[in-house]
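pasting for the record
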Amino acid sequence: MTTVAMDATPVAAASTPRRRIVFLGTAHDNGGSSILAGALAQRMRDAGHDAQEWYLFGSQAHGTDPHRRVLCEGQRSKSPTKLVALTLHLLTELHAHKPDAVFGLQSLSNLMVGFGGALLRIPHRIATHHNPSERLNPVLMQLDGLAGRIGAYTRIVACAEQVAASYQHGGSSYAKRLSVIANGQTVPRMIPRAEARAFFDLPDDAHVIGQIGRLSFQKNQDFTLDLLTAHPDVMLLMIGSGPDEAAITARIAAQGLQDRVRHVRALHHEHIGHFYSAIDAVVFPSRFEGLSLAAIEAIHAGVPMLATDIPSFREMFAASPWATQNLLLPADQPAAWSERLRRCFADPAWRDEAGVAFAQIAPQFSFDTMARRYLALLENRA
């Protein structure tokens, strides 16, 4: 296994003025947007700013972090009355907090950042897009385009070129505010394999594949379970929770996989390296992605990866023709996934090639580079 070393130098506070910054999300969960917001907020605090995470919906159990708050207890509501009340509550809180900058994390929170922030004359109102525009509700998409055209957003960030290319609904005024800041990650802290296997109650001699992410239609865990069924000598370490959890749990039982699946609903960030240390390969059979943070972590960890041949992963692997040819597989060809998985287990030279490919790819997805570019947005230079 090859581990890619990356610069971990923190963003310097330098002589920039201390700013009050809010990252506003629709709901706090274990998804990439929440993870990214938490990491960026911490880095901005390290740089001397007052940075907080606010979420429209969620559980106050997430409020144990003094820099994180939930405005409305419980699941996301589609009730117009509740949304109006929540919007007024948010505006009241933002008016009292007086932030210099607000970043939106998802479609609904982007709109509140844009229109609400403009009403309150917040100087920096930055929308961020982490998935292609076709995943947006058509009404929200129209409102997003309007926010970009009229300047409700001061800046718009897409996490990948293919995501940016999908946002053509706002015309030239929208496009001039839009820039790409690639997602970045730090290098997971790897530990000895035997220690990692013991942590997850996995046998030392088993072939283990991993999948990490929300249990959802997007991440396509059903495909992974079918892949597991075709490989009776393989185990799965699955990390995550989400809307499809009950259905996936039922499917594991129906396919008789209970003894071969280790499911961990949530994993603390300090244990992410345990996950990558415990597995032989990680799979990403996603139906769509923006620029997967978990896949970037796998690249930094040097763990062999198989992923769906979709624009997101093609963009991620662009620096390595070998990775594009060997690690991307069609979603409708499970036999190709099975063949590649067998090769991953049996061919040390192939695994070494994957490590070389990841060493070429990893420098493009440095957390430090991403954090510096987000901070530069507050200086009107990205």
